[in-house]
Amino acid sequence: MRLLFVVQRYGADVAGGAEQHCRQFTTRMAGRGHDVDVLTSCAIRYTDWADYYAPGTESLEGVIVHRLPVRRPRDPHLAGPLDERVVLGRKPAPFYLQREWVRLQGPDLPDLERWLEVHAANYDVVVFFTYLYETTVAGLPVAARTTPTILHPTAHDEPPFGLQLFELALRHANAFACSTEEEARLIRSKLHGRPPISEIGIGVEMDVEGDGAAFRVKHGLGRRPYILYVGRVDPHKGSEELHEFFVTYKRRQPGDLALVIMGEQIRPLPAHPDIIATGYVDDATREGAIAGAVAMVVPSYFESFSMVLTEAWAARKAALVQGWCDVLAGQARRSGVLFPTAASPSSRWRSTPSSPTRPSLGRWARRGDATSRSATGGTTCSTATSASFGLSWTAAWRDRRVVLAAAVDSTGQEPAPAHPDGHVGPGKHLGVAPAVPIRPHLARRLVVRAVDPGP
C-alpha cells in the first residue's frame, strides 16, 4: 500500500507519546514492504513549534518524510489569553474564536492544505495522528475529499475535547484507530453514533533486556532502590504532584528510596537530594532505567494509552498509576492485578501493595497478554490485550488491518483479496479501481478478510 501519515512532529529526537506511536507504525510498515510517507512540520518542540529541521524531503529509517515550515513560532502572549477564553471560558465559544485558537495551538503550516490537495490522491490511505492540532483540523477535511482517511485521535477527556470544532473535524475520518476502550467510548460519545472504530492498542517489544547496572553507574545510584517516572516534566502530566508526594513520603519515612524522573523538562521541578532528573534520553538508556527500577510510576491525569506502562510490564515491573485517569485505571484493571491504595495523599492512585509482591505482580501483568489472546481464538484482540497490556506487534498488525479495511469500506469501494501471508504487498491496496459501490452486507466480510488468520 501507499500510505501517508500526517503528524504534528516527527523524528528520532522528538519527545512525545503520539509522535513515538506514529513513528513506531511508520517504520514497521515500511519494513514490511509498504511505501510510507510522512507529512509533518519542521518543529522539534510543541511549546513554540519553531523550525528545527530543514524544510523539504528526506529519508528516515525507510520512510520518506516531507517537512513543512511554520508560518511563525507559537506566541504564548497571544495563545494564553485565547486559551482562557475558548477552552476555559463561557461555552460555547464563537466558532471563529475556536478556529483561531486551533491555529495558534499549532503547528501553523501555511502549505499544509495545498500539499494535501496536490498529493493526497496519490495514496491508498491517509492516516492522521492526534485530534488536537492544526495538522488534523485543517488537513483531514482536505485529504478526505479524495482518499480514505484514518484518525488516531489519541484523545482523552480534557477541556479542549469539548470544542465543537473538533466534532466537525472528526466527522471527516472514514475510520478511527483507538488505543483503549476508554478512548473509543469517548469518540463515540463525541460523534453520537457508531463510526468505524478499532481498538488496536500499541505494540510493545516483549523481550527487551535493558542494562540496569549501567544506568545505575551512570547516574550514581549504586544499590539504591528507585521508582521511575518516564514522560514530560509538565504539570499536565502530574509531575508536580508526584514531586510533592515523593518529598512528603521521604520526610515521613527517610530511607534510601530515590525517584528518577526521565523526560523533557517543560517546567523543571525543585531540586531534591533523592530525586534524579535525567532529561530526555535515548531508547537504550530508558530501557536500562526500567530494568533497574523497583517500579514504574505514571501520575498523569490525561492519557489515551500509556506506552511506558506496557514497557514496564513487559520488563516484569509493577506500577503505581493515577486512579483519576480512566485510561490508566482501565489498563491496570485489565492487567489482572489491581490494588487500590488506602493511605492519603495518594489514595486516588492504583498501586502494588508491598515490596515482596512487586516482582510477581509485574510477571502477572505480563502474562495477561497470552491469557487474553487465547480466550479470543486468535482473531481479534480482547480488551485486556489490545487496551491493557499493549499487545505484541504481531497482534497489533492484525488489528491494524481491520481499521484499514474499515476506512476503505466507508468510501464505497469493493476490497481486493488479502495477500496470502496476511498483509498487503507493495503496490496493492484494499480498494480497487475502478471503484465498485459496496453493498452493506459486504462490510463484515471486508473486515474479516483484512484480519490476519495467523497466530
CATH A-level architecture of the largest domain: 3-Layer(aba) Sandwich
Portion in helices: 25-40%
- The low-confidence runs, each spanning 5 or more residues with pLDDT under 50, are 342-357, 368-391, 412-455
How would the global form be characterised?
globular
With helices defined by DSSP (H or I, 4 residues minimum), what is the helix count?
16
Q: What is the count of structural domains?
A: 2
List the helices and strands and how they pair.
Layout: E1 2-6, H1 17-31, E2 35-41, E3 56-60, E4 63-68, H2 76-86, H3 95-105, H4 112-119, E5 125-129, H5 134-143, E6 149-152, H6 164-170, E7 175-178, H7 181-191, E8 197-199, H8 212-218, E9 226-230, H9 239-252, E10 258-262, E11 275-279, H10 283-292, E12 295-298, H11 307-314, E13 318-322, H12 326-334, E14 339-340, E15 349-351, H13 358-375, H14 383-389, H15 393-410, H16 442-450
Parallel strand pairs: 1-2, 1-5, 2-4, 5-6, 6-7, 7-8, 9-10, 9-12, 10-11, 12-13
Antiparallel strand pairs: 3-4, 13-15, 14-15
Helix pairs in contact: 2-3, 4-5, 5-6, 8-10, 11-13, 12-14, 13-14, 15-16
